[in-house]
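STRUCTURE:
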């Protein structure tokens, strides 16, 4: 048996009951935090930054500090040096104010020396071409050697060694005490210096031979004023009294000893009448007397060389 609801008519379908739609879920909003004071925020940021670990760190040890200090000093010095170099490259800065000469000078004048160095000293010591200055001075015939000494900031000292002549070398040159030949003339010494010459420039050997010959003739009162060698190697010497002695190319010492004996035995008393003595004989020498001398007629015709045997 079907029970019908009250009020429902038979044969009529029931109306669907409308249910209210479900309400949408309401989101709860998070409570709004109040902003902290500025000082507190800054403290929080500082705390967080301190808590963060840095990507890398450098510990300045004493060694690193020393290296940095040295580097800084180096850079300062480098900069100063570059500035100083630029400043000194100007020839008008720090000009040479004083030139001091040292050394004995007897044949050169101060005016002559100043003229030689003037083109080089119109600058400072940094730009001074010392090498060229030395070459210019040493190119002068009477200058044997030169050395320069710079005294900063503006003084130049020149040590100069002048040639010291002891003999003439031919007609237009001189010989110094070291046997070195240099160009020069010295008329005032014409009657004082001997004349030495060889076509082969061996001044030292000739000077030594001159001294040796003078020693061999010591005590005879004879002074050699000329000692020469010709192209064939033959030696000849001349005394101040004017006599010429021919030594030849060999055995010069032996021949000079023979002459010494003959001079002491026979020739000393009549040496003023002799014009030439030729020592190129084996056991003696030949004498050429002056024309007009009293001995010429006794030994042969005037001006003719005749041998005199005086032992070997």
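SEQUENCE:
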């Amino acid at each position: 048996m079907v029970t019908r609801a009250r009020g429902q008519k038979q044969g009529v379908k029931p109306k669907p009951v409308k249910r209210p739609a479900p309400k949408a879920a309401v989101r709860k909003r998070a409570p709004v935090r109040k902003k902290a004071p500025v000082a507190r925020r800054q403290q929080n940021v500082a705390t967080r930054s301190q808590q963060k670990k840095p990507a890398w760190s450098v510990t300045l040890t004493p060694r690193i500090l020393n290296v940095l200090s040295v580097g800084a000093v180096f850079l300062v010095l480098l900069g100063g040096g570059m500035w100083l170099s630029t400043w000194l490259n100007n020839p008008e800065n720090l000009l040479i104010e004083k030139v001091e000469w040292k050394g004995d000078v007897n044949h050169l004048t101060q005016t002559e020396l100043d003229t030689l160095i003037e083109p080089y000293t119109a600058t400072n010591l940094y730009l001074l071409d010392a090498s060229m200055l030395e070459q210019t001075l040493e190119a002068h015939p009477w200058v044997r050697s030169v050395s320069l000494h710079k005294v900063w900031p503006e003084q130049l000292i020149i040590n100069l060694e002048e040639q010291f002549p002891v003999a003439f070398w031919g007609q237009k040159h001189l010989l110094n005490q070291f046997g070195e030949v240099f160009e020069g003339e010295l008329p005032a010494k014409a009657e004082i210096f001997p004349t030495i010459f060889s076509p082969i420039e061996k001044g030292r050997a000739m000077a030594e031979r001159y001294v040796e010959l003078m020693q061999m003739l010591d005590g005879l009162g004879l002074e050699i004023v000329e000692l020469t060698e010709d192209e064939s190697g033959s030696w000849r010497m001349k005394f101040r009294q004017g006599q010429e002695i021919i030594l030849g190319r060999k055995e010069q010492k032996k021949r000079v000893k023979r002459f010494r004996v003959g001079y002491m035995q026979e020739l000393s008393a009549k040496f003023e009448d002799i014009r030439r003595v030729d020592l190129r004989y084996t056991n003696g020498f030949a004498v050429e007397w002056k024309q007009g001398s009293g001995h010429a007629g006794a030994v042969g015709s005037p001006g003719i060389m005749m041998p005199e045997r005086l032992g070997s």
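REMARK: Residues 161 and 199 are 28 Å apart (CA to CA).
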